[in-house]
Amino acid sequence: MVQFCKGHLLKAMILAAGFGTRLKPLTDTVPKPMVPILNRPILEHTIHLLRTHGIHDITVNLHHLPEIIKNHFGDGKDFGVNLHWSHEPEILGTAGGIKKAQEFLNGEAFLVINSDVVTDCDLSKVIAFHKAKGSALTLVVRQGDSPEQCDPIEVDADDRIVHMVGTSSKNKPDDTTRILFTGIQVMEPEIFDRIPENKFFGTTTDVFPGMLADALPMFAYWHHGYWKDVGTIQSYLDVHKDLLDERMEGGPPIENNNPSNGHLTQPVLVGKNCKIADTATIGPYAVLGDNCTIGNHAVIEHSICWQGVTLGKNSYANQSILGNGVTVKDKQILDKKTLAQ
User: Fold this and answer.
1) How far from chain centre, in Å, is Cα 86?
2) Nearest CA to 186 among 124, 103, 104?
3) Model confidence over 218-264: pLDDT tens digits?
4) Cα torsion for 284, 287, 291, 293, to the nearest 10°?
5) 3 CB-contact burial (10 Å; exposed 0-12 / middle 13-18 / buried 19+)
6) What are the angstrom distances between the C-alpha of 169 and each of 154, 211, 214, 259, 307?
7) pTM of the prediction?
8) CA gap 46, 114 in Å, rounded
C-alpha cells in the first residue's frame, strides 16, 4: 500500500467523456462539461473544488466535442491548475478511461471524480480517511432519497464495503446498509492491473466486484453535505435553484450584473451585457447568460438562459432551459421546455 507523506497532494482524474444524452438537445452542440452552472462550465466548478483542496495536477478524459473543452480550458493555468487531456476516439467506459490515463496517474494513490456532479465534499478529509483505513479503494457515498435511488453497494457497521452488484453474497453480514455512490473515489495504482488496455470497461461493473471477491480493503466515506448529479433536465434546474438559495458554500466566485432596469424578483443571476426592457420581469430563480435580450413585458422565472438568448415582447418562460443563441418569438409561451439551436 502507498505510504502518504504529510501534506502530500494527489493527482486527480475528472471523468468527462460522456455524451450527456439525458441533457439533449442542449448537448448536441455543447459537450456536457461545458454546460453552464451559474454561467460557468460545470467542469470549472469541478476544477475549482479540486484546487480548493490542493489538487492541481489533473487529467480529464474527453470524447464528445473535445476541442470545445480544450479550447476553453487550455493547459489549465488560467484556472490555477495543470490540465492534461486524455482523448478517447472510442469511448472506453470509466475503468477503460482510467487505464488510458495510467501514465499520468501511476505511482501513487489518485482521486477520480465525475464531471457532472456539483458538491461541497471535503476531498481533503476523503484522502485522509483513505490513508487511515489503508484502503485499496474508497468510495464517497451518501444516503439516497429513496431505496430505489441507492446503488447496489452495501456496507457493514464499520463502513467496509461488503457487497456489490455482480458479486456473491457469500459471508455477507446480515446487517448492511445500501448506499448511493457519489462518483467520487480514491484508488491505489494497483487497480491498473485489473483493467485491460483499449477496451470498454466499467469500474462498478467490471473492476470493483473482483476487488471485493479478492477481499481487498474497500471502504465508504460518508458525505453529508451538498451533492447533486446534474444528469437530467430536472436536476439541472434543481441545482440552479439550490445554488441560488445558497444551499452550497465554497463554489467559484460568481459575477452578478443585476441591471437597474426591469423588474427583478430575487434570486436572479444576470450575465454581462444583457439588455432588459423596463417592463420585463426576471425571476425568481432565473439565470441569464451574457448578451441576452429580454423584450417588453417578457417574463422569465424558474428558467435558465444561456448566452445570447432573445425573448420577444410578451413572451413567457417557466421551468425552461434555452441554449446558446435561442430566440423566442413575441407572445410565445414556454412551460417546461428545453430549446437549443
Assistant:
1) 18
2) 124
3) 999 999 999 999 989 999 999 999 999 999 987 777 878 877 678 99
4) -30
5) exposed
6) 11, 14, 13, 60, 51
7) 0.90
8) 9
Polymer length of the chain: 341
Which structural domains are found in the chain, ordered by start? 11-244 (3.90.550.10), 263-339 (2.160.10.10)
Closest CA to 230 of 31, 68, 20: 20
Closest by Cα among 228, 220, 185 to 45: 228
Output DSSP code: residue 160.
Answer: B
- The two beta strands, 151-155 and 268-270, are unpaired
- Report the C-alpha gap between 245 and 203 in whole angstroms: 35
Does position 117 have pLDDT exceeding 80, yes or no? yes
- The secondary structure of 227-295 as a DSSP string is EEE--SHHHHHHHHHHHHTT-S-S---------SSSEE-SSEEE-TT-EE-TT-EE-SSEEE-TT-EE-
- The answer to whether the CB of 274 falls within 8 A of the CB of 298 is no
Which pLDDT score, from 0 to 100, does residue 252 have?
A: 76
* 115 phi/psi in degrees, rounded to 5: -80, -10
36 vs 116: CA distance, rounded Å: 11
Kindly state the cell numbers that stand for 36: 453552464
